[in-house]
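Design job #97: recover the sequence.
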């Protein structure tokens, strides 16, 4: 009885129930779906703000945010209204015709970030591929690289997506193993290592079109580079006439306490790659953002997307940006991020379990020490029992990234829940 009451203290049965148990839905996915994910054993049915409910009505705090796609919170009313209003009018025109939503969305994003042009796409990896194509095109038509000789410098432990181009830049065997042959033209160097970048540019400089990187490596475990790293990349790329491409699909749009993670060092890349939260977690919206000398190297017929820039995406994207700005979500992420990291470190001041806590804004992670055969996955299961959902990455790291609409009171509830999970983990 006491155990049941304890559960009810952090779970609320106020959302949609299902006539089927969780095992029914998990069984369907296992039987009919590709086995390319290993989800936590929870079946979600609804969400609002920073909270989600499973098919049995149990409430959880979402501390993954669909890998930072749900920065504005689940089912934000302004974004849902924009979606519903537009879907009844015109949802797809293709780029064969103009529509009355695209230009306003492009102006909104370009003006906000102070760039000339926007190339709208759908998913983050599509935007990454588009950025590499544009960079290569610039390399040939502006820099004068010989045909088919352009190189892109990328960094180890990156995550730019799952397409063949993206995994051609990866050094993670789980991403690239068994999928070759790979696209040529990539030079891989260590992350957060300026001497390695200097050496690569010295060796390949005349053939290098761009350097692509994440300002903070999310999938690698929220790896935050040394302060000054981004500025030095900017200096070196200018010196060698090379484009600087910041993949801000996960770090951008207020997640790290600034509109862009690059803003922490006041660095302006030549190209930005955006996605995830650009669609508010409601609709896939992504974009490449850059200035005219780069973007206008692409001519009609040389690149495109049937759904990129569709009216529905544009209205959702515009509303998503409005929410970030109007609700000052970057400020909220900055303030609550400091509280979260400080309180998390205080939970395990002797570092018995948490080897390291790191992050910026509300993009955070902690490194877990294995304990009698138990590891990060098991800690996530304990947090789930305490009403907090998160996922491990790279075995011993747990990423913690809630919707940016979360309140301080909710953050403190989560800290208490993590503390209870920590106490259980120490018993292993």
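Job complete. Output follows.
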């Amino acid at each position: 009885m006491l155990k049941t009451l304890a559960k009810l203290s952090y779970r609320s049965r106020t959302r949609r129930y299902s006539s089927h148990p969780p095992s029914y839905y998990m069984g369907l996915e296992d039987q009919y779906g590709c086995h390319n994910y290993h989800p936590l054993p929870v079946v979600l049915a609804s969400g609002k703000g920073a909270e989600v409910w499973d098919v049995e009505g149990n409430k959880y705090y979402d501390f993954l945010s669909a890998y930072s796609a749900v920065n504005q919170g689940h089912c934000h009313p302004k974004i849902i209204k924009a979606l519903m209003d537009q879907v009844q009018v015109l949802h797809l025109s293709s780029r064969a015709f103009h529509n009355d939503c695209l230009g306003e969305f492009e102006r909104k994003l370009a003006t906000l970030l102070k760039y000339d042009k926007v190339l709208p796409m759908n998913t983050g990896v599509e935007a990454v591929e588009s950025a590499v194509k544009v960079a290569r095109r610039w390399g040939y038509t502006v820099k004068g690289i010989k045909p088919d000789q352009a190189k892109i410098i990328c960094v180890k432990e990156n995550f730019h997506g799952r397409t063949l181009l993206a995994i051609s830049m990866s050094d993670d065997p789980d991403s690239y193993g068994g999928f070759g042959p790979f696209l040529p033209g990539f030079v891989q160097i260590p992350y957060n290592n300026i001497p390695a970048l200097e050496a690569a540019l010295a060796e390949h400089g005349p053939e290098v079109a761009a350097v692509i990187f994440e300002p903070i490596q999310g999938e690698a475990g929220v790896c935050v580079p040394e302060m000054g790293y981004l500025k030095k990349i900017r200096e070196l790329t200018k010196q060698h006439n090379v484009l600087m491409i910041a993949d801000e699909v996960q770090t951008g749009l207020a997640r790290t306490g600034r509109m862009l993670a690059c803003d922490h060092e006041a660095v302006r890349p030549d190209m930005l790659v955006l996605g995830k939260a650009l669609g508010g977690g409601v609709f896939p919206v992504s974009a490449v953002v850059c200035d005219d000398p780069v973007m206008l190297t692409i001519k009609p017929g040389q690149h495109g997307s049937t759904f990129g820039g569709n009216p529905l995406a544009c209205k959702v994207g515009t509303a998503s940006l409005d929410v970030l700005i109007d609700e000052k979500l970057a400020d909220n992420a900055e303030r609550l991020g400091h509280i979260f990291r400080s309180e998390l470190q205080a939970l395990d001041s002797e570092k018995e379990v948490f080897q390291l806590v790191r992050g910026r804004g509300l993009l955070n992670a902690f490194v877990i020490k294995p304990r009698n055969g138990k590891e990060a996955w098991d800690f996530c299961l304990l947090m789930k029992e305490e009403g907090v959902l998160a996922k491990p990455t790279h075995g011993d790291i747990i990423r913690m990234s809630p919707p940016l609409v979360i309140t301080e009171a909710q953050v403190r509830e989560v800290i208490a829940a993590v503390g209870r999970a920590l106490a259980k983990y120490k018993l292993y």
